[in-house]
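Batch manifest, entry 17 of 40.
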Amino acid sequence: MTVAAANPVLQLDHVGRRRAGRMVVDEVTLELGAGQVLGLLGVNGAGKSTTLAMIVGALQPDMGTIRIGGKDLTEEPIATRQLVGWLPERAPVWPELTVAEHLATHGRLRGLRGTALRAAGDAALAQAGMTELRQRLAGALSQGQRQRLCLACALLHRPALLVLDEPANGLDPVHAAALKQTIRTLAQGGTAVILSTHLLAEATAVCDHVAILHEGRLRHVGAIAAGDQAALERTFFEIAMHGANPAARAA
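Output type: structure tokens
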């Protein structure tokens, strides 16, 4: 099962990961092209966060191949990671640094300097709705503001692939809506986006494809019509309760 992509930004080929002797991600094969937004869905323990951690290079797969921008993540880890922006579920911040200092630090780690760094920081703060908080200490930010700061850090270097793990955590309705618009804008500009979420309404609002993991295996991958939450709910709950794609069960 795969998302069709003529020039894929991301390719997973039979990727797997073991933990305590069992497969927590089992032979996942997937492609994602420029401008596509993929919702990665599944119940707790389905393997979503482990899959995302392998994609961004935080975990090494025990089997299979991950390619980003045509480059093998294992063989060219530095080059491939430069193409990825990552917002983990529990995004870390340094409480003693200001918002602007976070952006400067992340930018220097990405190789940005001088005017380019300042311009990238300004653009990322604007995208995340954090411009007015640039001089505030991270330790004084609310949970939602910390989440938006980490989103700005993930966007700083204009990644080809943006990986979001439960990005709406802690966001109020206004900023959750702004996040959806940011994702749409990035996709229109050619960024490939993976959005892991428990909220099916969030997936139908911004994603053009969904992939459903269950017990580490991909059970469903397909296009999704905007706002068609009822169809997604039927597929999701069938897999969650029975572990199989409804179409496969009917065949």
